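Newbie here. two chains, one complex. Structure please?
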Amino acid sequence: MRALPRLLGHRAFVTGAALVLVVVLAAISADWLAPYDPLRSAVRMRLRPPEAEHWFGTDHFGRDILSRMLFGARISLAIGLSTAMLTGLFGTMIGAAAGFFPRLDHPLMRLMDALMAFPAILLAIAVAAVLGASVANVIVALSVATTPHTARIVRASVLVVRRMDFIEAARAIGMGEARVLMRHVLPNVAGPLIVRMTYVFATAILAEAALSFIGVGPPPPAPTFGNIIANGRDFISDAPWITLFPGLAVVVSVLGLNLLGDGLRDVLDPRARA
Amino acid sequence: MAFYLAKRLGGMLLVLVLVSLLSFGIIWLVPGDPTSAFLDASATAEQATRLRHELGLDQPLWQQMVAWYGRLLHGDLGRSILLRRSVSVAILERLPVTLSLTALALAFAGLVGVAAGTLAATLQNRWPDQAIMAAALLGLSVPDFWLGLMLILLFAVQLGFVPTGGFVPFGESPSGWFRSIALPAATLALVQVGFIARMTRAAVLDVLHQDFIRTAAAKGLGRARVILCHALPNAAVPILTVVGIVAGAMLGGAVIVEQVFSIPGVGRLIVGAVLSRDYPVIQGGLLFLAAIYLTVNLAVDLLYAVADPRVRLE
């Protein structure tokens, strides 16, 4: 908790937290905020530009873009958060095993190297396409693509911590390996891990949008930031608002999370830079 | 040096073997039968069996794998089901397109990113630094394909400067080539330039705090000379690292950007194959891109020794 006052004094962190809070609150209260049903089409209201009744215009089914964005934020944020959690979980398991048990180090990290050799977005596209389009499969695909780097970060921190004197002291008083790992090593790895998870949250929102654009994202009609933008592509000259506004929503969410990550990094993981 | 190279090549070979296993294995994940994507609903069971036989899918897994590695050793990535031709030829035909796109984007992002990052470090905490770092962070937060669409909207639809998509080969018309590749390269560069600027700033700041910089200033060298001749060369290794990372990221970015601008590159080939389940192209394409990525990594590591004579490759 010592970190909290320093975080609250960090300008980037506070700005990022505010942006993220706005997006999260909007997503949570979509039921009350959304002026229309995000799935209801209205043929006579097709492709209306931004106006008083439809602030951000309508799409080719006459669906209200603002309402779709509010509900889309839910799925996009859920995908980002779940991916961050899963990369944290599996990254910690693999990274801790590799860093703490020398015999596992080489095989595990070579496997991670191999996964990292594929362009992450292409790996995610391939896994998502092979598994089939659904929210859960997108989360799995993005976790597969982001976990190797997380594991590498955790391993690096574990390697530093396990050589410290207090670890030797813990062993000297007869503590078991598993207990040393859980009680003493992992808590000291938390800083870099939280920072990484924040950046993965941001990356996952960007990647979900890219997967939807390619056509392997969460299936329509349920809105996500990505598939609203992807829908708008065919109408880019006549109805640019379909593409413009959800894209800006992605920028605001991701910028907020990146600022949050920068703030957390400065406070929790001062050795890492940029 | 020779020993280092041999060791690195050995390590790379091991990773490549794992990469080829993963590329081969991705097809196991497919629920159902990979041939179902290539047969229409009226196809008989007999036709399906024949196609499975043609593709070798009726053989046990280990035989399929032996066949895959046997072909790999001859540089043969198999045959595309949909294009009905060799996967390696299809990739090599499209490679110049992807390479020219990535090279142009990397040159642009590298020059602008290093210049902006150095400037920001020199003017640390003053307004140009804050403006550059804010712009860099904004760039990192923009989805690449959305930026591409916005650039199309502005420069192609509204202003009519460039076509909305498509590709003109360099040999056909150099100016047409540039017009067709300018926006895609700009898209690819803009989402990465911020990362280079941030890392360059950090690297230069690190060097600026060292004693020899104070000495250089104390002996009366101008600020510009201290930065360009003393600080920047000493920040070369971290900058090279980040340019290497960006080169790898751009291969992934090209996959998306080629899709947005309808550019017939390797990325578009592979995404098309993923969507149509043309799995020999998926396997071969993944393996090929990973091999390029590993080669770039190795090249960057070797360049460390060139950039900084203190680095000993052992």
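Moderator note: Chain A is about 70% helix and 0% strand. The first helix of chain A runs from residue 3 to 8. Thread marked as resolved.
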